[in-house]
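Please, structure for the following, as tokens.
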Amino acid sequence: MIETMDVFADETKQDQQQQWLLEHVKIPSSPTPSAADLSALTKLDLPNLGLTELPTCLPRTCPSLSILFCPKNKFVEVPPIIGKCPELQMVSFKECQTITSIHPEALQPQLRWLILTGNKISKLPDTIGRCHKLQKFMLSGNLISELPPPEILSNLNNLELIRLACNKLTKPPVELLEACPNLRWAAFAGNPFLETLAPTAPVESSLLPILDDPVLDDDSWPVLGKGAGGVTRKVPWKGRDVAVKTFAGELTSDGSPQDEKAISKLVTTASGEDSSLIALLGETKTGGALVMEFLKGYSALAGPPSFVTCSRDVYGDESKASLENFPLWKIAIDTLRVLSKLHSLGVTHADFYAHNILIQPDTNSVKVSDFGAAFSYRCNNERFVSLVETVELRAYTVLVEELFGLAIEKKEDSKHPWRELLKECRAPGMNFDNLFSGKW
């Protein structure tokens, strides 16, 4: 553990700085990296080292650096030196918890993906307006109470995803949603404005059955999935397998695990039975875990975005193979039905991606999963309500575009009115209620 990095403050100590980097860089193909390796380095991981600053030699020593991860360190600000790295596109100072500010010079045009989740940042500098290439901005779990003015935000015309859950926003971020015409995924759960501006008669969900059976809270069952938001296990129960998810994790880039649990309960109980929503069977009495149907033979429609694609999912060979005989039009319509139901409840998924859509090729079944970023957006600001739905409709349009591309590859695009659906998706003023009107 390195408690201070004062050696980095002196420009005359370039050799010491470079030596420090050589000692901390891990290059699989080179157990003992050289200066030449550093000059060609494109990704640098410096997690949990107690760092308070970065080497001032970084731009010269690592001129090709495009990805920098510095999570769980002791920085008090996002340092200005990263702004001098000419190729740096993806940056993470996640969960440092001590960062209270972003140095204005840290923000430069080359940034595409900035992750600052889990800190104590209260304000964004106006230099955020320089970042016209920025596509993904993760700010959940900070102390932001207000955003830069519209003339600054309007420069973020390539921003597609923003995470501002669990901050201190006291008013709906209407100006942000208006200023960024390409936003498709926006999460705001856990902000004060959603509570203070909520309607007097919010949507109520029916209570889930409380399942009093110790076997469901037993944490020794096989793990199906594990993330920052909790753990899901496969449990044999009453002659069948079920999935039991415990929401006991840390803050995620999307928001609070407890918010995810609340939205999951609301959506699946208030919207009635829907074959494309994962069925909830109940909630455990002791641990408060959600008991869900076990999805046998399901897989994600696509893989999550890569560094190269940034905000777009990846349809690899395995994904395309599972779709070889799958009716693509069914995916488009089943997910449209789900989104229409969600928005009728005043809920936005906020992370509507192909990688959160599960398919079962043997039964041609479709499931919409992962409500980690979802939130109830009903409030007394009609403009905000309308803009939130517009943002999600853009996300749905991305999926339709991707499915249409796959249908063309499979030479089955003429079987269904893809072009007509896309035209309707892009129509000014369109919403899910009108889009899902029985026409399709």
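Residues 300-435 form a domain with the Transferase(Phosphotransferase); domain 1 fold (CATH 1.10.510). Residues 342 and 348 are 6 Å apart (CA to CA).
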